[in-house]
Automatic annotation (TrEMBL):
NCBIfam families: sensory_box (TIGR00229). SMART domains: PAS, REC. Gene3D superfamilies: 1.10.287.130, 3.40.50.2300, PAS domain. Residues 293-317 are annotated as: Disordered. Pfam families: PAS_9, Response_reg. This is histidine kinase. It comes from Chitinophaga caseinilytica.
Length: 317
């Protein structure tokens, strides 16, 4: 069965303090924590290097070193973990220095009770996991934001552009600095489309999924498929993701033109076929007529003209 106890490392050169803390934790939360001990600075660095613990209790006084040195070591190796600084007496300067160096909390040994310590440990682990999840989501968001091939704009219902990704600058030919000083309605080719977009997105829980026409800095049209959704109703902020479909629409238009050309060709062939059949009959009839009638001065010219004209029509069709 997997051990679900949370592993904690206590870095303290006083063994009595370690036993006291371990006893208090077991009394308050039996079998919830596994506390191990590092009595020296060097032993602490070895244990930290293994990255096996979910939280670290660090005494401020460690012989020639201090708990601040431990916190700085965390920073130097790029290791993020919750650290609670312990000290024998309250000192605002130490408290402030510890917080700046990255401590999760600061506790005075003589003032804390078992429940206070357990609560601080539980909160430190929980808060660290929560903050790490937020940081991971932010990394994912900014990864998508920075690398997306779509135009991504964060704006508000006052039409202010709050942020824009690199591809927004690339597609519109505006620098990021220029975009951040613009109103978003200036990106729409038609004022009526801009008005309609803001009316729809600024309603409660709005989601807009439509085609619009943007324009770049030179006024060139950009056909876009917009997916926009409200982020914060109170602040009126929304995220707009616009896919550039200019090339796609041009290809569709060319395809439609090609299809029209093919259809026109089919119609022309059908008409030609329908016309050729009666013209052939006319040619045969004219030929038979010329053979049967008695020639007159006008007959050869008129019948010959009709026959040749009909033949040309039949050939052209």
């Amino acid at each position: 069965m997997k051990d679900k106890r949370k592993r904690i490392l206590m870095i303290d050169d006083d063994e009595d303090d370690f036993f006291l803390v371990n006893t208090v934790l077991q009394d308050v939360a039996p079998d919830q924590y596994e506390l191990t001990w590092a009595p020296t600075y060097d032993r602490a660095l070895e244990a930290i290097g293994r990255r096996e613990h979910e939280l670290y209790l660090v005494d401020y006084r460690l012989g020639m070193h201090t708990g601040i040195d431990i916190l700085r070591h965390f920073q130097s190796i790029g290791y993020e973990a919750p650290v609670i600084m312990l000290t024998g007496k309250g000192d605002y300067a130490i408290d402030n220095e510890a917080m700046i160096a990255g401590a999760t909390d600061y506790l005075v040994k003589g003032d804390i009770t078992g429940p206070d310590l357990e609560r601080a440990i539980r909160y430190g682990i929980s808060e660290f996991k929560h903050l790490r999840a937020i940081a991971e989501n932010e990394r994912k968001y900014f990864g998508i934001f920075e690398k997306s091939h779509d135009i991504i704009i964060l704006a508000d219902c006052n039409m202010n552009i709050i942020d824009a990704n690199p591809n927004a600058s690339k597609k519109t030919n505006y620098s990021r600095e220029e975009l951040l000083t613009m109103n978003m309605d200036k990106l729409f080719f038609l004022e009526t489309e801009a008005k309609r977009f803001f009316e729809e997105i600024c309603t409660d829980d709005a989601i807009v999924q439509k085609e619009f026409t943007f324009r770049d800095k030179s006024g060139k049209k950009i056909a876009v498929l917009v997916n926009a959704s409200k982020l914060d109703e109170q602040l009126g902020t929304f995220l707009c993701v616009a896919e550039d479909i200019t090339d796609k629409k041009r290809e569709e238009q060319e395809k439609r033109q090609q299809e029209k050309f093919v259809i026109s060709g089919r119609i022309a062939r059908v008409i030609a076929h329908e016309v050729r059949n009666p013209l052939t009959n006319i040619i045969l009839a004219v030929g038979q007529f010329r053979e049967k009638i008695r020639p007159t001065p006008k007959t050869p010219r008129s019948t010959s003209t009709s026959s040749s004209a009909t033949a040309r029509a039949s050939t052209n069709s």
